[in-house]
Fold this protein.
Amino acid sequence: ETGVTQTPRHLVMGMTNKKSLKCEQHLGHNAMYWYKQSAKKPLELMFVYSLEERVENNSVPSRFSPECPNSSHLFLHLHTLQPEDSALYLCASSQDIPGSNTEAFFGQGTRLTVV
Amino acid sequence: TQLLEQSPQFLSIQEGENLTVYCNSSSVFSSLQWYRQEPGEGPVLLVTVVTGGEVKKLKRLTFQFGDARKDSSLHITAAQPGDTGLYLCAGAVGGNYQLIWGAGTKLIIKP
């Protein structure tokens, strides 16, 4: 069983749909993250949770709504997305919020296409 | 705005050749990480460098952190098809938990 599991792996949704991305970590980590990865661009940090509390929200549009019900699960709720939101959405976890030597463990990502 | 520039953006070489990719910034980092991301997968950490001038070796991969902790390089000796992937660098700024990411170098090693 992999450390960080994301579902679904692929998602195609219309601009009026509502969907959710799920992330689960089995590593006993305290911090979880959502990143957006677009081609030829640096990873964009969207949300950070530490011990189930949201630590950071990097000016992400309200059409993205995170939820962290416990330290092992993280959701990203999506509604009324735009085509430019199409990207690979990566979930990651780490023992603690990044310091100098904190390793982030990533899931395989959800490839999202908004049509 | 803190930026990490990676070069080249894309590199395609034959198996057995050597290569170096670079990660440069005007910012000073407390540490820098290198990740490799294979198609359809998330990034996986290869190494973390912390000390200016530090050199770390991982089999055929050699990582160096610049003396001023503003840049880093990854050298691969005798590249193999299994080295194919997207190589990402990410820097940590002291006191700020957000990593600064580069856009990556896409490496293809042809058999």
Q: What stands out?
A: Residues 88 and 104 of chain B are 4 Å apart (CA to CA). DSSP finds no helices and eleven strands in chain B.
